[in-house]
Specification:
This protein has about 120 residues and is mostly beta strands. The protein has helices spanning about 35-45, 120-125; strands at about 15-20, 25-35, 50, 55-60, 70-75, 80-90, 105, 110-115. The strands form three sheets. Strands 2-1-6-5 form a four-stranded mixed beta sheet, covered by helices on one side. A two-stranded antiparallel sheet has the order 3-4. The longest helix is centred in the first third of the chain and has 10 residues, at about 35-45.
């Protein structure tokens, strides 16, 4: 087994983390992790991220209850992007209430919703 050093220095201390449903392979979201978020994710087994806008650590689902139980963490060839396979608790990764943040399809500049809403954000946030 090779020891991997994640390169948090390339992008000002954060790296992208692609979150994927472990069961069906659907991409649920893209988040960003700093070293602290990564270490907390590994320690707790639940996805944690760095909020670029709020400048703080947060656990996915801390407000909504829609947490992400980590099943596997993969790293890309440049050691600066993660693919994290999760079990999405509560069914929705998106703060808009959909399973995936990628619930719209673009066609000639028009977005079509092709996901089903799981919860109403106004009821939670």
């Amino acid at each position: 087994m090779n020891k991997i050093k994640i390169d948090f220095d390339k992008l000002e201390g954060i790296i992208p983390a692609i979150i994927q449903d472990a069961a069906d392979g659907q991409v649920l979201m893209l988040g960003f992790m700093n070293r602290e978020a990564f270490e907390k994710t590994v320690k707790t087994g639940y996805a944690h991220f760095w909020s670029r806008s709020r400048k703080k650590l947060w656990m996915k689902g801390e407000t909504s209850g829609h947490t992400q139980a980590v099943q596997e963490i993969r790293i890309d060839c440049d050691n600066d992007t993660l693919l994290i396979k999760v079990i999405q608790k509560g069914g929705a990764a998106c703060h808009e209430g959909y399973k995936s943040c990628f619930y719209r399809t673009l066609n000639k500049g028009t977005a079509t919703v092709d996901g089903e809403k799981i919860f109403n954000p106004e009821d939670i946030y």
